[in-house]
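Recap for those who missed Tuesday's class. We walked through two folding examples back to back. For each one, the amino acid string is listed first and its predicted structure tokens come directly after. Nothing is annotated here on purpose, so try labeling regions yourself before you check the end of the notes.
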Amino acid sequence: MSPASVENNHIKFMERPLIVSYSYSGNTHRIAERIRVMTGGDWCEIYPWQPYPMAFPELLKQVKKEIKSRYYPKLLPASYLPRSYSVIFLGTPNWCGTIAPPMASWINQNDLSGKIILPFYSHCGGAAGDFQENIVKRCPKADVREALSVIDDGGKSLGEILQSWMARNGIRVFQTV
């Protein structure tokens, strides 16, 4: 595969980007799906070996404990590996102001050096965090671009939100939706 080329901070795809996402409630899933349609990229959903509790109080308790202890859950095998991709979109819910532990686990398991990383996250208006900085710390040898924050699943304006974000980051959109 030919790599993506970068000219004046704009990306011209000669290959598909990779979209990697973890979604608990489905919001991040819907955003990732829209990115896949817009870019023609390959999509890799990640899943923890042990599912998270369905009840919110139990979920919040477990997530806080995992984030505080820097626990990285075991993941089910992924359908795509990042090594043959130059551009990677990383999607996660905002959990306690940071990336969800399953996404942190995936990042820790994969070398993203030299990759262009476009982080995006869904939230319901909870604790704000610096997702871009969270990714930069985990991927110091990657070109981490502006993180996109989306409330819930973006609703009817998701296509416009994504198109604007991708344009600011030099991403060519194949299909607008």
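Example two. Treat it independently of the first, because the proteins are unrelated.
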Amino acid sequence: MKLNDYELMQINGGVSVWALIGALAGLVFGVGMVDGYARPPKCRR
């Protein structure tokens, strides 16, 4: 069975762009927290 363009647009599922951006932002935040905990920055006085 072949679907036309309209029927293809009606199919829901997959991962949205915003979900990928959110996952990447969470990953970067988590890596930064672990890095800050493992190697805390020194005070520059």
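Answers for example two:
The CA atoms of residues 8 and 31 lie 38 Å apart.
The chain has a mean pLDDT of 91.
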